[in-house]
Specification:
The chain is an alpha/beta fold. It is built from 9 helices and 14 strands.
Length: 346
């Protein structure tokens, strides 16, 4: 009798082992760029004066042994910097690396770890330049790895789960932060220090997480009229400056921008992209010379229309920082003003 029970136990164990081996986990590649998620401090309550880039991608992965239960994960360290130091060459390098990786049929998705200050800019750049239906998920953290209740580990687990999920396909680049799933086209950082900072005021979230399982509110969809740019032959991006408007604003910064080689300007204007008349004259002169000017709004949300009295282009639903990304890629693509205008108006 004991022998029968023992044999039965062995059969059950072997069957369970065989079933487990049949479950194929998705292959997800993590591209690390640094930021708070890789930051550290001597104080466990320090959430503002820590040092970015203290841990590399292997350390992030090894700190999460449970990540192996949701995906086969590999990592590549692209850079290890604060996100304010991410520049155009880094964006081109990162996008090219992700495009190459997703061409591999064995890779189901990609994750990018990034500092939160400019996370939305990188996510939007990737949204416009990654040529794949596979999921690309950008994540980070608001608290460094050494802090009490650090949010990075859970954000990374959720991002990997999202990137390996078939329901994430054909949605463009996604942002996974604080149990929320957002679109890279519209998600922006709205608070300087709190974990619930990433939101899309007008458009809302695409979904949420229960544990690490993504739950979508809608079927796959991408933003209306959003273009795509090939960067295969792009070695550099043209200079585009963002200039902030305010009371007493004049044309000094506009002239300085043009003098220093700006090929395009984004005005972060008041209200519906408004700029004082004393500055508009200089902007109009620049536009006549072929320098496109995008008028965005410092209000944080809303649709910005094109000025009635000039050749300026309203930013539509894009904020100033995303307008800059789109304008840089448009200029690098050789698009004329009429074509550029359609990108923003759609």
């Amino acid at each position: 009798m004991k022998l029968r029970v023992l044999c039965a136990s062995v059969v059950i164990a072997m069957t369970a082992s065989a079933m487990a081996s049949e479950v194929k986990l998705p292959n997800v590649k993590i591209f690390a760029t640094g930021g708070t998620i890789s930051g550290g401090s001597a104080s466990k309550t320090d959430t503002t004066k820590y040092q970015d880039g203290q841990f590399n991608v292997d350390a992030l992965i090894n700190a999460l042994p449970d990540i192996k239960t949701i995906a086969n994960v590999t990592g590549e360290q692209v850079v290890n910097v604060s996100s304010e130091d991410v520049d155009s060459p880094t964006l081109l390098k990162l996008s090219a690396a992700i495009n190459r990786s997703l061409e591999d049929p064995n890779i189901q998705g990609a994750v990018v770890t990034h500092g939160t200050d400019t996370l939305e800019e990188t996510a939007f750049f990737l949204d416009l330049t990654v040529n794949s239906q596979k999921p690309v998920v950008v994540t980070g953290s608001m608290r460094p790895a050494t802090a009490i209740s650090a949010d990075g580990p859970m954000n990374l687990m959720e991002a990997v789960s999202l990137a390996g999920n078939k329901n994430s396909m054909n949605r463009g680049v996604l942002v996974a932060m604080n149990d929320r799933i957002g679109s890279a086209a519209f998600t922006t950082k709205t608070n300087s220090t709190t974990p619930d900072t990433f939101k899309a005021t007008e458009q809302g979230y695409l979904g949420t997480f229960i544990g690490v399982d993504p739950k979508f509110y809608y079927p796959p969809v991408k933003p209306t009229g959003q273009p795509h740019f090939s960067i295969d032959k792009v070695t550099s991006l043209p200079r585009v400056d963002i200039i902030y408007s305010y009371q007493d604003f004049d044309d000094v910064l506009i002239k300085a921008s043009i003098r220093n080689g700006a090929k395009g300007i984004v005005m972060d204007g008041t209200g519906n992209g408004d700029v004082p008349k004393r500055a508009m004259k200089t902007l109009e002169a620049a536009m006549k010379k072929g320098i496109p000017v995008i008028f965005a709004s410092r209000t944080g949300s809303g649709y910005v229309t094109s000025p009635k009295s000039s050749e300026g282009i309203g930013s539509g639903y894009y904020n100033a920082q995303k307008s800059r990304i789109l304008l840089m890629l448009s200029l690098a693509n050789g698009d004329d003003l009429n074509k550029i205008k359609t990108y923003f108006e759609k």
